[in-house]
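Hi there,

I know you've been waiting on this one. I reran it after we fixed the sequence typo, so this is the corrected version. Both the input and the resulting structure follow.
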Amino acid sequence: MRIISKNLLKSVALGCILFFAACDEDVPVENTNALNPDIFFESLSQVEAAVNASYNQFQIIYQRNGYIFPDAMSDEVVSSGDPNFAPFNRFEFNATLDNIAQYWTACFNGVGACNFVIGNEERMRGNVATSDFSNADVDDALGQAYFLRALYYYHLVKRFGGVPLKLELETALDDTPRSTSDAVYDQMIADLLLSTQLTFPKGTTEVGRVTREAAYALLGKIYLHREMYTEAREAFSNVGNHSLLPLENYGDNFSESGEHNDESMFEVGYNGEVGTEQERWAQTGIGTSEVTFHSQDYTGWANARPSSKVIAEFEDNDPRLDLAILVDGNNTYGPGGVFQFPCPGCVGGPVWYKFSQLYDNQDVSENSGVNVRIMRYADVVLMKAEVELNLGNDQGAVNLLNEIRDRVEMPRYGSATMDARGYPVNTTEQIFNAIVHERFIELCGEQQRFDDLVRWNLDDQELSILPDQNFNNPDESLRTVRVYDPSVHRVMPIPQNEIDSNTAIGPGDQNPGY
């Protein structure tokens, strides 16, 4: 298979097989008979095209909605009045919002593309003897599809809870009832167990494709979220071939020039190709637009400013602050740090620096080609610390936390300095607080915080106050309250158009509170 790092996610030849599982009258349902599997999968290029189509919908998801939903609902972000952000930042969203339906549809389109690969295993294997691909190529194609299907369902279950399980090629367009969250997680685990056995290790496959290490990392993450700590430890033990970047290269985790580095485990690729204005803004995957609005939303327009709460979480002299957030009069940016913020065309700070085009001294625009990092090794190290803590290995958890600290040349947990800063690690509770603190800093603005708070049952405590300048005001009457209800807002509503058109899902199947 060829190198696909920046153009992985587009496959024009497979556009006709992206099955639209959500029945939206405004979204065209493609003719699934337009491409006959009986005359497909006859060459390596066709296998590649089918696999590439399985990646496609993540590029659509992370053009905007994929980062908006979890970040805006967290305490890391204070939104502008932009209608894409404000309802989620204030927990005022409802089932009729277009971007919720768009996200649902993209995820299920991705599931359908994965099913096209998985459902044609027998045909691919039957063609090996007369084709230019091998059984090893089939294994890798299937392994990628299983990983991607699990990842699409991870995005669905985190945002909606239980959703329809569509696992067969023939039923991609059928009306399907909701499954339980437990059933969805079980299917994701089953898919990832297969992926870990079928995908190629890092360094033996093309840059940008799913690797065995990424499959083990996602499997461990799901086990952690299911409180299956022994299984999570075992999965994470198989994550090798990655390392934490040294401090001088830390910014490579967030720049276009630093894509696919040794810390990055899975990325959604963009190349900055605009296409037409209609293609760029449609967020449907139709056409040639390969851009994300992340840099413009977070840095240029400042639709999602970093909250004063996340800024205050950074300790004095933590170098990660200046590499994550631009504060007025206190930052330089770009190669060598020679450019002064505020930058031309940018609003004043604070704004996010992470994933902006400024890292490479490019103008901030909606035409960003900076890849989205879905998972990096720092996240794995911190998840391993959490697993070890839950398995009673307190010192092992502290040692893993200190790997993150050593990389950025910050004082170690267990030292007098950290004790004095309010982060002793003498008890299990104190180590847990250190994990919460370290994840907040290290992974801020990376779509992790909201799901972390829910997993820890800290969401009600941390999300009920808008994290603006008044978040820590001792006078509670001056705090800005968000209407957050953990019995409702841990998930979003099922899109209304799905309830209206799917005969197997009715109003009674809607998430509570919507």
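Quick highlight: The longest strand covers residues 264-268.

Best,
R. S.
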